[in-house]
Amino acid sequence: MKILVLNCGSSSLKYQVIDMDTRNPIAKGLVERIGLEGSVLTHSALARKKEVIKTEIKNHTKAIELVLKQLVDPEYGALKDLKEIYAVGHRVVHGGETFAKSVIINPTVMKALKDCIELAPLHNPPNIAGIKACQKMMPETPQVAVFDTAFHQTISPSSYIYGLPYEFYEKYGIRKYGFHGTSHKYVSQRAAILLKKPIEELKIISCHLGNGASIAAIRGGRSVDTSMGFTPLDGLMMGTRSGALDPAIVTYIMCRENFTVDQMNDFLNNKCGALGVSGISSDFRDIEVAAKQGNNRAQLALDIFDYDVKQYIGAYAAAMGGVDALIFTAGVGENAPNTRASICKNMEFFGIDLDLEKNKVRGEEVDVAKTNSRCRVLVIPTNEELMIALETLELTK
């Protein structure tokens, strides 16, 4: 049984076809620069050579048409017929309060997704475009929406309500939603398997650390708090995003720099974070190289990021009354031993005792805590595509 997983960004499309018998991808690829000059599809299938197609791709419908064509291509494809695809799972960034779990897509769901556009204006429109394209070209194939926000719908009002007049929540839905839910859910379930304990008995802190980054407190398999808020701008300082700020800073900068609302939004999302502090790059690998060469601003950016993560670990351990497992995942979390070591330094009083030798790994699923550490420290490569495929299968089988 094969599931197609689609992740539509504003100008990109990532995809995988996963064989659910083996839980391994048999084809995957990336379409970049949709609607822009220099559009390109990079496609690879199991035991086939990689294919790169440079052609005009005007919109997501054209992108999906091209992807589906490649999936059944005699030379480069992985399928004989599109009918082999049992269902399609779509990553949808924002489900608001309407969706606390994944759903089979129907007209009512589509209307609700459109209603959530104002909460995620950069993300939900391409998600919807991808769904419509698949509905047009694969009308008999079930379509499922899997939401970034759904996993965090279990957090309590005391965690998600902001210190604003309550009617702003009632009128506009202003509250903490949280994101990266699919990743946090996947790695927490893997942690329970690795530790050979029921997830219902575990207190877990999951650190999804990449260019975008968030922390989640997970008790008994349910999210009880998370660092991202109303939008993915909140929480940790990230690659280009500022993270949490004194809100007065926003109006102060707007007045001094004569920024419009759109300019300020672009500034906070794309020109701040590690890029803004270091002045070098939003890529933590570049920043780490510069720091080793003696660049003080690069080192400062790393120190700020590590300190931010450490603060959230402490806060969430307090919120849950302890922690049994600390998880590092995503690009930085999986592949930056120095970052993990810096974050865990002097955390022994929380029961977090890192083994520096075991920690010298990248991209492996492994426990890097000392044998006698009360809290296990796990490196778990995330697999959001598989999580989406599993939820899609569960709903459609």
Automatic annotation (TrEMBL):
Pathway: Metabolic intermediate biosynthesis; acetyl-CoA biosynthesis; acetyl-CoA from acetate: step 1/2
Site-annotated residues for Transition state stabilizer: H180, R241
Keywords recorded for this protein, A-Z: ATP-binding, Cytoplasm, Kinase, Magnesium, Metal-binding, Nucleotide-binding, Transferase
Gene3D superfamilies in the record: 3.30.420.40
Pfam families xref list: Acetate_kinase
Molecular-function GO term, any one: magnesium ion binding
Domain of life: Bacteria
Subcellular location: Cytoplasm
Family matches, as CDD domains: ASKHA_NBD_AcK_PK (cd24010)
Reaction(s) catalysed by this chain's protein: acetate + ATP = acetyl phosphate + ADP
Note describing how the cofactor binds: Mg(2+). Can also accept Mn(2+).
One Gene Ontology biological process: acetyl-CoA biosynthetic process
Family: Belongs to the acetokinase family.
Protein name (Swiss-Prot/TrEMBL): Acetate kinase
Lineage, opening ranks: Bacteria, Bacillati, Bacillota, Clostridia, Eubacteriales
